[in-house]
Amino acid sequence: MSLNTTHLNQSLTHFDHHSSFWLFGYGSLIWKAGFPYLECRPAHIRGWIRRFWQGSHDHRGTPESPGRVATLIPEAQAICHGMAYRITPETLAPLDVREKNGYLREVTTLHFDDGGSAEGLTYIATRDNAAFLGPAPLENIARQIALARGPSGPNPDYLLNLADALRRLGHRDEHVFALERMLTSLLKEQAPPTDP
Ligand code: SIN
């Protein structure tokens, strides 16, 4: 099931009158910006963990066979690392469309890895959105990702690119890395045998 959140997001007006502001990305927005930005800085936000608990019917899966992509789940003391982009307000319109499958703009405090902080926005798919899939054994999540593919490409690419991007940033995320390990071995099992 899916619910288009584009219009809901476009009714939100935080930062409308700022010439620029910060957007925090923690999923595909880390490794595939695909939008114009004025600068980017590695950053983290506090009180959230990244989880592959959001269904993707529009990018990395289909309504019949949804993929799984990242969202943020509140957890006291947790830190979620990602990338901050300084953008202008016009950039939100295409992002609202890209994040339409359940994500809502949320105001948050970004802490830059090299010091300092700023208020900004992040897109979060909360538990009450129609595409939310929620927790499942990691093995099941990895299997679902291994099989799914959507208009933006194979679901495995999303996870593998995210894991690579986090490694390049120098951050560990055990949820992502454990899924990456399982997915990699599933993909090996699925690969056709090579000639000796
Ligand atoms: C994000 O990357 O910040 C949001 C989720 C996604 O687009 O993958």
Automatic annotation (TrEMBL):
The keyword Lyase applies. It holds the Pfam family ChaC. It is an enzyme of class 4 (lyase). Signal peptide: none annotated. One of its GO terms (molecular function) is transferase activity. The keyword Transcription regulation does not apply. GO terms for cellular component: cytoplasm. Keywords: Lyase, Transferase. Its EC number is 4.3.2.7. One of its GO terms (biological process) is glutathione catabolic process. This is glutathione-specific gamma-glutamylcyclotransferase. It comes from Pistricoccus aurantiacus. The lineage of its organism: Bacteria, Pseudomonadati, Pseudomonadota, Gammaproteobacteria, Oceanospirillales.
